[in-house]
Structures are given as C-alpha cells and as structure tokens.
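User: Sequence recovery, please. Input:
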C-alpha cells in the first residue's frame, strides 16, 4: 500500500497534464447531451444522481423529466405522499431508493431549511446519500474544487495509471485529488464519466465494478417489484399474494418482513398495504 501511495504522489506533472488533455479532448468531441447537465439546481442534480445508481442513462432521462415536471423543487417532493412517489418510481428498480429520496427530501426541508447544498455537507444524516453523491451534487452545482469517484472513474484511473484492481477507495480518491484541474471540476467529472461510459468501458478493459448487479429474473428484487405494483392498487393478504405470484409462503414471508422493516409497507390485521 505504501509503495502505491508513493507511486500516485510521484506521478510526473507532465503525465497528469497529458491525461487531462486526453480526457478533455474526448469530451469536447463526444460529450453527452443530458438534461441534468443543463442545470445547477442542487435538488435536480441530487435527483439525477440517485436515479442513476445502477440504472441506465436512457431510462433515467424519461423518469427524470417527468419527475421534475411533477415535483420541481425539494419542498414539492417533501410534501408528496410516499405511495405517489413509489408509483412514479416504478420501473427504475431498487425501490428503496425512492423511499430514501423521499425521506431525504423531508429531512432537507425540515432540518436544513430546504438548503440541499448545506445538507450535502452533512450527508451521513441522509438515507441513501453517500460520499460520492454528496461530492457530485456539490461539484455539478457549484463547480467547487472537490473530487468524486464512481465506477467509471475508478476504472479509468486503474487502466490509465496501470493500478491493481485491489486499490483502496482512499488511494483512488487521493489520486483523484492529484489529477483534478482546479477551477474545472464540473467539466472534468462530466468528461471522465463520458470517457468511462463511452470509450474505456468495462467490456473493453475487463475491469469489473467492485459490486455487480444480481440477476433480476426470479430474484427477490423482482418479487418486491411485483408486491409494490399490487399494493399500489389495493391491500392484499399473504395468501392472496401466494396465489397471484405462484410462490410459497416461505419465499414471500421474509421479503414482506424486510419491506415492513424498511417501512415501505405495513401490515393491518391480515393484509399488507403501502405505508402512507
């Protein structure tokens, strides 16, 4: 680890400049036209970042634009009913993200006087918001000289600087600091993300992400989505779900218990319903 740290700190300045020029040159010719790049509103950028977690860009664009039309501000989202939020999220997957977003919006309004940027500086108090998202919102909103490292950026650094895939997050973030062109953080991170998504892909490099999405078909995630769709229409008992989904209670029960623990659903007598 010590030798790796020395290596990153001893990268010649000309190598860093060459790397920056390569990334910016690609970006100039290939930059993607994405709706969240046309705003500096921290709420809209937070929304895009949470939607983009483990979801393809093309699908997110449609949801993002509909969402902004319905809830254009953090206050509007905070005032929305959870079932309505979950209904809008259907199809994006990982529905706990929608619940986390809704709870985060309410916390930002009540605890931070609707100041998204201030809330990002205390991101540990916000469900579903980690260091990456916190830094990204600040970068894309204010162009502040911060860094953030997602799957694409991690892959670029590993490939370009010939680093082991076992490199720690701390070491990668330190390297990101060294490579940051001051005063250009917004463009730099957009450029890196485009280079990783369009040019230096996982397929091309063989560098796998640290965590990989599990198969959806037949998974607990698929069952959770089915449960959510049904409960958006009406409350249902576990026996009704068994018959509808053609599943044994042994498979359904732990999923329902987990969704109850996450406070997405509640049980009223013998039936389950969405939490209000």
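Assistant: Recovered sequence (276 residues):
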């Amino acid at each position: 680890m010590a030798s790796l740290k020395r290596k990153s700190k001893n990268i010649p300045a000309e190598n860093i400049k060459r790397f920056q020029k390569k990334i910016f040159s690609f970006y100039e010719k290939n930059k993607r036209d994405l709706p969240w790049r046309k705003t500096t509103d921290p709420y809209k950028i937070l929304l895009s970042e949470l939607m983009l977690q483990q979801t393809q860009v093309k699908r997110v664009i449609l949801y993002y634009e509909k969402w902004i039309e319905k809830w254009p501000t953090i206050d509007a989202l905070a005032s929305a009913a959870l079932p309505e939020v979950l209904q809008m999220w259907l199809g994006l997957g990982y529905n706990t993200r929608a619940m986390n977003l809704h709870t985060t919006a309410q916390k930002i309004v009540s605890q931070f006087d609707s100041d998204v940027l201030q809330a990002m500086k205390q991101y540990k108090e916000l469900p579903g918001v980690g260091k990456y998202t916190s830094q990204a919102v600040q970068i894309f909103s204010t162009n502040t000289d911060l860094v953030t490292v997602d799957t694409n950026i991690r892959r670029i650094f590993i490939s370009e600087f010939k680093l082991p895939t076992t490199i720690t997050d701390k070491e990668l973030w330190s390297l990101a600091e060294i490579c940051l062109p001051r005063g250009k953080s917004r463009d730099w991170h957009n450029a890196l993300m485009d280079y990783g998504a369009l040019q230096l892909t996982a397929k091309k490099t063989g560098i796998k992400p640290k965590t990989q999405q599990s198969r959806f078909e037949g998974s607990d995630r698929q069952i959770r989505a089915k449960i959510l769709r049904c409960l958006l229409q009406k409350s249902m008992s576990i026996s009704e779900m068994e018959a509808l989904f053609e599943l044994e209670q042994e498979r359904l029960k732990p999923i329902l218990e987990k969704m109850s623990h996450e406070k997405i659903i509640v049980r009223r007598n013998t039936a389950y319903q969405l939490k209000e």
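The mean pLDDT is 91.
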